[in-house]
Input
Amino acid sequence: MSTANKLICVIPVLNGATKLSATLTSLVGVEVIITDGGSTDETAIVADQFGAKFLKTARGRGQQLSAGAEAAVAQGAGWLLFLHADTVLSADWMAEAQAFKDDPDNRNMTAVFTFRVNDQGRAAQRLERLVDWRTKVLALPYGDQGLLISKDFYLSLGGYKALELMEDVDLVRRIGGKRLRVLSATATTSADKFQKAGYLRRSIRNLTCLGLFFSGVPVRWIKRIYG
Output
C-alpha cells in the first residue's frame, strides 16, 4: 500500500477494556493506535491482544486524538480514521472507506458513518432518526460516528484541539457541511450512557451543551453539565 493511501485508526480510551474488544474486532486488518488517558483496567492488555499500538497520553479526548494523529502521521499514514472505543463498525465499512479514499475528489473531504446504537427499543430508534437528521441537515455529526479524513486535509485544518469536550464539534465546524459525506456503513455505539441517564434526558443535556458551546461558553463550564 502506498503511503498516500495508508490508513491508521486512532482510538482514544479511558478504562474501555470491556467494550474495546468488539471495536477492535471490527478493525481487523487495519493499523490501530490506542491513546490511553490513564486507564486502570485491562485496556493495555486488550490492545496488545489485537496488536494495536498503545500510547499513553494526557487525559482528555481532544488531547488523546491529537496525540494519536501525530503518531499516525509519524508512522506514514495518508488517511486517518478516528473512532470511539465503544463503537463497532459494520462489516461493509472497509469497502466504503476504500471507495471514498480512492476518489481523488475526496482528498479535501471528510466521511462519517451512519449512527446506530446497540438497542432495538423505540427510544433508541428515535435517537437514531434525530442523529441522522442532525448529521444530514445541520452537518453536525459527533465523534461516535467515526471520522475518516486524509492526513493532508486534517493537518490543513489544524487538527483536533486539546479540548476535554466538544472536540468533535469544533473540528466538524472547521470542516464545514459542504466537505462532509455520510457513508451508509454503520457505526454502532454502546447504548449504556443513554440507558443509564435516560434517552430523553441525555439528548436534552447534549443539546444544551451544544448550544452553550456555540454561544462561546468555556468548555470547562460545559463539562460540569455534561458530566
